Design the sequence.
């Protein structure tokens, strides 16, 4: 008795031999973004007292009637929020690197959207005169993201994320 071939009449799933050079470079840049974000977090935590003093001075200048408890609450919210934001940022860099390396078609779209949000945040940071070192780190992170997005949308990457489009 002859058994029918189970794969007869079906399209086989595309097989990736590995990411192309542009995706590999984008992934490396994403890991670099995670490292820069982690270093920024470490520096921020190491200099938390200076940041706290800066917040306190700014708050007293803008509203001298604030009580010490109110100032402390605002400092705490700012510092905890900043640390949480940096941890989430590191996680997003790593997640995007892993999912783009795996060739998930949605991943480069999400990475591009996150880059757009980062661009808006950078513009807001430039508009509000911030600390020069912080602005330099933001610009460096933005440049890393720009490079990653450019590499993700190159022609060989498009073939990797969408094999039908690359043929």
Sequence:
């Amino acid at each position: 008795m002859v058994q029918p071939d189970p794969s007869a009449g079906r399209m086989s799933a595309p097989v990736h031999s590995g990411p192309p050079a542009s995706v590999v470079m984008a992934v490396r840049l994403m890991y670099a973004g995670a490292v820069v974000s982690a270093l920024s977090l470490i520096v921020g935590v190491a200099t938390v007292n200076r940041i706290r003093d800066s917040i306190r001075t700014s708050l007293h200048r803008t509203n001298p009637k604030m009580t010490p408890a109110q100032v402390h609450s605002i400092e705490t919210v700012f510092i905890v929020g900043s640390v949480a934001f940096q941890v989430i940022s590191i996680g997003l860099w790593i997640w995007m690197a892993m999912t783009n390396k795996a060739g998930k078609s949605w991943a480069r779209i999400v990475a591009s959207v996150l880059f757009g949000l980062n661009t808006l945040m950078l513009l807001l940071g430039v508009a509000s005169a911030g600390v020069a070192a912080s602005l330099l780190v933001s610009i460096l992170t933005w440049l890393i993201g720009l490079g990653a997005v450019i590499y993700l949308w190159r022609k060989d990457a498009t073939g990797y994320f969408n094999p039908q489009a690359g043929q």
